[in-house]
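Hi everyone, sorry if this is the wrong subforum. Our group has a chain we'd like a structural model of before ordering constructs, and none of us has done structure prediction before. Sequence below.
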Amino acid sequence: MMHTTVGWHIELEFMEDDQQTRAVAMVRLPDGSEVRARGHANRHHTDSNQPRVGEEIAGARALNELAMQMLTKAHGEIDDASGRISHPIHV
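Answer:
Right subforum, don't worry. Here is the predicted structure as tokens:
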């Protein structure tokens, strides 16, 4: 049996200043639809300025939100296809 390989491309963009980093994550699915999520990180005034750390935190939070949205989307598709309410999908 042959299996088809599918790939998703996830994009992350960052906007930052001296105190805050914001991230936007977006995945484009094979059907052409897109799912977007946001994350942020705030630097405490006593912390040293480490932009990469802010990006890692904001990016991880955006990806976590993206994952939750994908689980919710999949759960809805399962319910729509089966005609019943299924158990929630947990991480």
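For your construct planning: The longest strand covers residues 20-28. The helical segments are 51-82.
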